[in-house]
Amino acid sequence: MKLRYQRLRGFQDILLEKIEKLRWCEERWCEVLGRYGYGEIRTPIVEPTDLFLRSVGKGTDIVDKEMYTFESKGGESLTLRPEMTASVVRAYLENGLTRQPGTMKFYYNGPMFRHDQPQAGRYRQFHQVGVEALGSDSPVLDAEVIQTAMALFDAVGAEGVTAQVNSIGCPECRPAFLHDLKDFLNDNLDVIPENLKARIDINPLRLYDAKDDGVAKLLSTFKPITDSLCQGCRDHHDVVLRTLESLGVPFVSNPALMRGLDYYCRTTFEITARSGRKQSSLAGGGRYDYLVEHCGGPATPAIGFSIGVERTLLHLDDKPFDAQRSPQSKVDVYVACTDIAAQEFALILVESLRDNYRVEIDTTGRSLKAQAKSANLRRAKVMLVAGEQEVLSGAIQLKNFATGEQKQVDGKSLSAAVQEVMEGE
RNA sequence: GUGGCUGUAGCUCAGUCGGCAGAGCCCCUGGUUGUGGUCCAGGUGGUCGUGGGUUCGAAUCCCAUCAGCCACCCCA
After folding, report:
1. Protein-to-nucleotide distance from the CA of A1 to the C1' of B16, whole angstroms
2. What 3-state DSSP class applies to A386?
């Protein structure tokens, strides 16, 4: 069959078994996030391009290469959100929440868009579940946020995940480190591949993200950023690490962990899974104490993270999804009908069963043999059979699949008869 | 953006030296005049990704192109 239409590269259909797994995770995540004090936020998928340019930052791959940007009819530049933090900050300010008492804690779950090269666990439209907590600069909150992320993985049974934690300092102490780092890199230009040299001037921290072995080796000989923190950042970082230890959160300190977005400061973290080939970075986050102010609000410290949903699902279950072998949704009662008259009769007769049970009426007109087979595939406990005789008599055949017994029941006693079988399990 | 691998039935794939387009699974029908998992028989289903070229003849060889997967880059 030649397909007339195909989904776009890097996009996906989510259906059948796959969406059941997704919903299973989502339900658990909502539950856990509620227990950690987060309330849901939903924001538009489209925002003015400028919001991301200014918050995520020019010079990052996300805004330079990966945004779905287009022009509206009014000539305004719009962008499909590539991440959520900027939108949450925008919503926080736009809804006048800066004077709310305490810490505002939001969680979100939704699609993000990045025009990246697709591969396993990486899509152009993908889903993130994450949190943003605005209004507290306490290092204990940082630890709680990391703990929250770990709790989300725990809730869906993800194994072998660890948090990597670092501090990238603040505007007070980072410039000195960057200066030294730049000098150091320029003294060792011969080790750095051509394609990475441009980063030295744009954002030298991003050399840490490069997977080049020579560069990694070189940087490991440089002083770790955690040794260059100012007193405030150092104290903050110490408390974060200490609290994580007290909580028993499995983490490792990783001074080479930087983050690709401009707005981070102090605590940054990433949650990684031990796995050979798949995308191992399942979640990332950090503190962004200056973003709210940068967006025109009052100085407001904040921290957040987001989980890559597809990656996490991939990590939970490495069997590739196969729509062909994926069963259709389960039902309690399957109604087999011989013809259209019987379908009509059955639909009316069975209506009240749907108050309590999942009921499928087969309207294909196939052989009863084929319909009974489908009933079984759908895991029905009960099959009802309607044909010419039933239409005439007003009664219906009820078969209990567990016992194989079949009897005739009239319309009035149908509910009770079905209930009897369902509760007999 | 760069490199590697792969495109044949709804799915998974075979197809020899260039010589009639195949198998298994799924689906449908029958065996069982109206009934499930097993079994048996039969059947539906193909623009061989697409477009050119070579050839008497192309799924097969050549060129181009598109798509998928994987890796790099980067990220969730």
Report:
1. 28
2. strand
Q: CATH number of the domain at A330-423, out of 3.30.420.40, 3.30.479.10, 3.40.50.10840, 3.40.50.800?
A: 3.40.50.800
Tokens of A394: 């007003």
Residue (of A375, A384, A379) closest to A410 by Cα position: A384
Burial class (CB in 10 A: 0-12, 13-18, 19+), A13: exposed
Distance A21 CA to B34 C1' (A): 38
CATH topology of domain A16-169+232-316: BirA Bifunctional Protein; domain 2 (3.30.930)
- The structure tokens listed for A205 are 């921290």
Instruction: Give the span between the Cα atoms of A282 and A307, in whole angstroms.
Output: 6
The residues, ordered by sequence, that sit 6+ positions from A262 with a Cβ below 8 Å of its Cβ are A55, A56, A57, A59, A60
Bases in strand B with any atom closer than 7 Å to a protein CB: 1-2, 9-11, 27-30, 32, 34-37, 45-47, 49-50, 67-76
Average pLDDT, consecutive stretches of 10 residues, N- to C-terminus, chain A (425 residues): 78 88 95 98 96 88 88 93 96 96 97 89 93 98 98 94 93 91 87 77 80 80 92 97 97 87 90 73 94 95 96 82 85 96 96 95 95 95 95 95 93 94 83
Delimiting residues of CATH 3.30.930.10 domain(s) in chain A: 16-169+232-316
- Give A371 CA → B32 C1' in Å: 15
Phi, psi of A161 (to 5 degrees): -105, 140
Determine contact, residues A111/A12, Cβ cutoff 8 Å: no
| Strand blocks (E) in A244-378 | 251-253, 265-273, 281-287, 302-308, 333-337, 359-361
CATH 3.40.50.800 domain span(s) along chain A: 330-423
pTM of the full structure: 0.92
> What is the ipTM, given to two decimal places?
0.87
